[in-house]
């Protein structure tokens, strides 16, 4: 075994040397993203917001932290976006997921930037799809928030978010086909 590992390491090093001497760029590695799941409950000033918010994706400048304010910013956002990354300016990808029930939970499974594509997968439980009885149910909606951070080169980027209902978190059996939102595009200008 040590011989195979040494051969692989030598081949990898040789590949990097040849690529750097010929000016070829190495493929970009996936960049792990900072994500948060925000729980939008019925308890805010606008309970209908939780029930009526449409599933989708938006890119927001200076996204607010409180769940209801984030949902309102998402709802009123423009879908075509040009953003400039600079000091003091925060941007985030926000995705509204499906309406869930009191016992349900949501968890980010994958969130990477590979080249110019944001790949995000969220798993969530679904008491309704499992056929569970719901007493004193308080529906809620998960809002995924993904920080967009420098350095990003000036270019067009794509985002797709997949919401998958599973029996249990983190790796339960799927209960239905995933809800795939997007892709949407946005452009970074420097």
Unreliable sequence segments: 1-28
Topology as a string of helices (H) and strands (E): HEEHEHEEEEHEEE
Instruction: State which percent range the strand residues make up.
Output: 35-45%
Q: What structural category arises from helix and sheet content?
A: alpha+beta
Average pLDDT figure: 83
Gap from first CA to last CA: 48 Å
Radius of gyration: 20 Å
How many helical stretches? 4
Query: Got a strand count?
Result: 10
Helix content: 10-25%
Shape: globular
Strand order in space, largest sheet: 1-6-7-9-10-4
Main sheet summary? 6 strands, mixed
Quick rundown:
This protein is α+β, with helices and mostly antiparallel strands. The chain contains 4 helices and 10 strands.
List the helices and strands and how they pair.
Layout: H1 2-22, E1 31-32, E2 35-40, H2 47-52, E3 56-61, H3 67-75, E4 81-84, E5 91-96, E6 106-114, E7 117-125, H4 127-130, E8 141-148, E9 155-166, E10 179-189
Parallel strand pairs: 4-10, 7-9
Antiparallel strand pairs: 1-6, 2-8, 3-5, 5-8, 6-7, 9-10
Protein architecture, described:
- The chain is an alpha+beta fold and 190 residues long.
- The protein is 21% helix and 38% strand.
- It is built from four helices and ten strands.
- It has helices at 2-22, 47-52, 67-75, 127-130; strands at residues 31-32, 35-40, 56-61, 81-84, 91-96, 106-114, 117-125, 141-148, 155-166, 179-189.
- The strands form two sheets. The protein has a six-stranded mixed β-sheet, with no helix packed on it. It has a four-stranded antiparallel β-sheet with strand order 2-8-5-3, with helices on one face.
- Strand 6 (106-114) and strand 7 form a beta hairpin.
- 24% of the residues are buried.
């Amino acid at each position: 075994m040590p011989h195979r590992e040494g051969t692989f390491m030598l081949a990898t090093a040789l590949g990097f040397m040849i690529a750097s001497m010929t000016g070829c760029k190495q493929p970009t590695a996936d960049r792990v993203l900072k994500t948060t799941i925000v729980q939008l409950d019925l308890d805010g000033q606008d309970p209908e917001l939780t029930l009526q918010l449409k599933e989708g994706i938006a890119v927001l400048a200076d996204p607010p932290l409180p769940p209801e304010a984030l949902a309102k910013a998402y709802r009123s956002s423009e879908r075509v976006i040009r953003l400039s990354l600079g000091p003091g300016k925060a941007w985030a990808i926000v995705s509204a997921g499906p309406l869930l029930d009191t016992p349900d939970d949501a968890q980010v499974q994958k969130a990477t930037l590979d080249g110019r594509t944001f790949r995000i997968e969220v798993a969530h439980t679904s008491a309704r799809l499992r056929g569970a009885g719901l007493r004193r149910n308080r529906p809620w909606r998960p809002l995924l928030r993904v920080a967009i951070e420098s350095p990003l080169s000036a270019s067009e980027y794509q985002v797709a978010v997949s919401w998958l209902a599973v029996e249990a978190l983190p790796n339960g059996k799927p209960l239905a086909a995933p809800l795939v939102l997007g892709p949407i595009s946005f452009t970074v200008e420097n």
